[in-house]
Amino acid sequence: MRALRVTELGKPYEVLELARTEVPEPGADQVVVRVAASPVNFPDVLMCQGQYQVKPDPPFTPGVELCGEVVATGSDVTGLAHGDRVVGAGAVPAGGFAEYALMDAGRTFHAPEALADAEAASLFIGYQTGWFGLHRRAGLRSGETLLVHAASGGVGSAAIQLGRAAGATVIGVVGGREKAEVARELGAHVVVDRHTEDFVSVVKETTGGKGADVVYDPVGGDTYGRSTKCVAFEGRILVIGFASGDIPTPALNHALIKNYSIVGLHWGLYNERDPRAVREAHEDLCRMATSGEIDPLVSERVGLEELPAAAQRVADGHTVGRVVYTST
């Protein structure tokens, strides 16, 4: 089979190499799938660079999220069978950037019929992160105001749709005119282009001075610091990630004085500590996909040959929505 392999660490464009290798064999609790689609996630980029918390030894194939057809099952696998169309996590070092991939059975779910392969492949990480962040960690309520940073990206676009589905007023922050249009199409009620506008002022004006009840921050750095200036009394700042590369040091005295919460989310831990909740989230997301409340934004579909360059564009912040490798 063909697969993209990382033999040495570095920028995705430089280290993702197309190679021929054997179709992987499943472990006792794994399945082998014929890959239909696999989005580029920021963890894939970080993994190529050796900067992700999971650090597989080269050579390895990234692709932490995918949709595919089960072609083989391990001896201990139940509930999944040959021919099933599934979504979930790629089991790196045999991840989704290949013609065939491994998946751990506990992180594999039946794909929603309402979504095509590329969109279904994009339902797992970004939407599960949004679901757990907004509902379980932040307790977002109907009528509240949600501020979403990097709102046109893979994680941010999911948060916009999930926020709207929850009945919140959504303010999306993006960088550039094209990304602003994408955020509007996704359903953001108010869109802020950070290149030309101050999101702190816009949030205060939109909320009549109250501020945002929930801040969804996958950026970190100065974005986090400025968000503290427009978070509401008893608001919640969700720490999703640090795409800026700068991990902020919170001023805890400010959180005390203003009565807001700083809430961390490491979604991957739920797969280990509360897998039932992950399955419940998947079922709820499938329901919303069927009803049309959510629909993953796929901006580019690329083949294996084009994937290294596409992954680099994701790394450089030059994409909107999801960039997805598709096998056809």
What does this structure look like?
By secondary structure, the chain is α/β, with parallel strands linked by helices. It has two domains: 2-123 and 296-326, Medium-chain alcohol dehydrogenases, catalytic domain (Quinone Oxidoreductase, Chain A, domain 1, Alpha-Beta Complex), CATH 3.90.180; 126-268, Rossmann fold (3-Layer(aba) Sandwich), CATH 3.40.50. It is built from twelve helices and 15 strands. The chain has helices at 12-15, 42-49, 117-121, 125-137, 154-165, 177-186, 199-206, 221-227, 252-258, 268-273, 275-291, 307-315; strands at residues 2-6, 16-20, 30-39, 66-73, 85-88, 100-104, 108-110, 145-149, 169-174, 190-193, 212-217, 231-239, 261-264, 298-302, 322-326. Strands 3, 4, 5, 6, 7, 14 and 15 form a seven-stranded mixed β-sheet that branches. Helix 4 packs across helix 5. Its EC number is 1.6.5.5. It is an enzyme of class 1 (oxidoreductase). Residues 11-325 form the Enoyl reductase (ER) domain. GO terms for molecular function: quinone reductase (NADPH) activity; zinc ion binding. Pfam families: ADH_N, ADH_zinc_N.
